[in-house]
Amino acid sequence: MPPVARSPLSLHxxxxxxxxxxxxxxxxxxxxxxSGFPTPHLSDKxxxxxxxxxxxxxxxxxxxxxxxxxxxxxxxxxxxWLHSFVGLLLFGGTILLNVALWELxxxxxxxxxxxxxxxxxISVSLPVALLLSVVNGFxxxxxxxxxxxxxxxxxxxAVALGVSALVRVMCHLYQGPLGAILVxxxxxxxxxxxxxxxxxxxxxxxxxxxxxAAFT
Length: 216
Known about the structure:
Blueprint: H1 11-34, E1 42-43, H2 44-67, H3 81-109, H4 112-120, E2 122-123, H5 126-151, H6 157-171, H7 176-197, H8 201-215
């Protein structure tokens, strides 16, 4: 994948893009933590609201990146059968890791019952679940992998992957301690893959499958 012909890295750019992409989600998650982890409810109405917020945030953030030299082709999305199959394998790998984390840490840190209540509070129709899964998978990984990892690459893998993982977890704190660890496990797998191969579609597709499994 060719490098992005953008302006020199700016910390102000990264902070601004993170704020646009993830600011509201981080704020909402922190509020959930401070409120004692109320059980979230996801109906078609809430799902469509989330979808609209992501559809609004993406073009605003990309306008900033456009000024910095990014173009749509720089997202590097190459949809092929092979890359989709790799995404399916990635999804399977994250499932195995999360099952292991569920068994190893579920009794230690708790949170199993909360996640079960969370899953029971999801009542999204299949068309909305499909639409939200596609949009959310594209939205999160175009930011967390393609942008954030690339923006921080020159600082090395520890910084690039660490910051991406930190932002990912902070956006999902509302899922409780165990949920945050499961999200971290997923993030580590897909971000390491992206770091090694610099292919974002398999990561997006794995995320879409994970969301669809959760929503249905």
